[in-house]
Design brief:
By secondary structure, this protein is mainly β. It has one helix and twelve strands.
Length: 259
């Protein structure tokens, strides 16, 4: 009889524990990450391969929020050499890394201070690489259940390494900048997310390069962890070589996996 009572008690304790675990909400992880990939292969009259990849990482806890964004674009096209042989050569290659940390000054206030660093290596631009660092003040200008708008501004410093050409040696230019950026997000519905990013790095010094970037994206949720993303990016440099364009655009469709 005693054994039956003990067994019954243990079963009740076990069931109670399971029920408590089921009803207790899981603590949200401060870490979020996602990876995206898009590819295009073309054969026939011309052969080419394009690969676009990206990685997002974020950590948010208490008053601190940090984000890191990595983008990679590679394009290889089949070209004919002087001997008439065809080879795949890299015709486009771009690597971008951007990191930012925000510290909210007060829980009751939407104001924050930030630090931002960025690095870009574009093999077929006028620059070997471009890097910058800035810090300043920002604010969440409004927030609703479906939309947010964050914007910040501050002084910074940039460094451009100008590519060597037939008429010019490699040169490094550094300058003071004023950086301003804004991010607008809107949850259009349960499955569709819209984002608009604007970044300006203005150099007050005459004849120094200033950069402007605008990126628009729409993501559609396919399943819980997989989205289809369509994006348009515009990059503008005020000072480039004569044979280069000031404005470069990029249109992409990628699959994004969140984990």
């Amino acid at each position: 009889m005693s054994l039956k009572l003990i067994s019954t008690a243990l079963c009740c304790v076990s069931l109670t524990t399971v029920a408590e675990e089921a009803t207790t909400p899981k603590e949200k992880s401060p870490y979020t990450a996602s990876a995206e990939l898009g590819m295009l292969f073309k054969t026939g009259d011309t052969n080419s391969a394009d690969v676009k990849a990206g990685f997002d990482f974020a950590h948010e806890k208490a008053a601190w929020k940090s984000t890191v964004r990595l983008d990679l674009l590679i394009k290889k096209s089949e070209e004919e050499d002087e001997d008439g042989e065809e080879h795949f050569n890299t015709s486009d290659q771009k690597f971008t890394l951007v990191g930012q940390t925000n510290y909210t000054l007060d829980k009751a206030s939407p104001n924050y201070i930030y630090a931002n660093v960025s690095y870009e290596d574009n093999r077929f631009s006028s620059f070997e690489n471009q890097s910058s660092i800035s810090t300043g003040w920002g604010r969440r200008w409004f927030e609703t259940e479906k939309a947010t708008l964050d914007a910040d501004i501050g002084p910074g410093f940039k460094r451009d390494v100008i590519r060597q050409t037939d008429t010019q040696d490699e040169e490094t230019k550094s300058a003071f900048i004023v950086q301003a950026q804004a991010l607008y997000t809107r949850q259009i519905n349960e499955h569709v997310l819209f984002k608009q990013l604007l970044v300006a790095k203005y150099s007050p010094k005459s004849d120094e390069n200033s950069t402007y970037k605008a990126q628009t994206s729409i993501s559609t949720k396919l399943i819980e962890t997989l989205q289809l993303k369509f994006s348009i990016t515009l990059d503008y440099n005020t000072e480039v070589d004569e044979d280069k364009e000031n404005l470069n655009t990029e249109t992409a469709m990628t699959l994004v996996y969140s984990f």
